[in-house]
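Question (not urgent): is this output format expected?
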Amino acid sequence: MATLPITKRGAEKLKAELHKLKTVDRPWVINAIAEARAQGDLSEHAEYEVAKDKQGFIEGRIQEIEGKLSVCQVIDPVELHAEGRVVFGATVQLEDEASGAAVTYQIVGEDEADIKLGLINIGSPIARALIGKEQGDTAEVQAPGGIKHYEVVAVSYV
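Got this back:
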């Protein structure tokens, strides 16, 4: 299985979610199932069915997170020595050459991506177009509205 790149912040977020699932959510759902069983006939007991479904989701998510954490490669952007190139974890300031609009993105793993926070998935078209570029380079991105050209204004590792 291939390694999964993730930033230090993203790994900590996944570990925190895993901890909450194991220490809060799992005991809660086990208690909810026990209470539903104590009420008698389970064949027509909606709370029991809901709790069992929730338990399935929780156990599935625990397995998913544990699997990801077992194959992830944690990358701390502060420790990168990429000599100004855009790499995983880099924060990139861009300018849309057509409109002049400025945007800033950090290239992160798929579990961390949140476009509203400026965090873009390493597998996204814009991130793939930016990898390897340096300040002053132009990246050509195939967007749903057509090809866009972005100038790399600055690259930092924070």
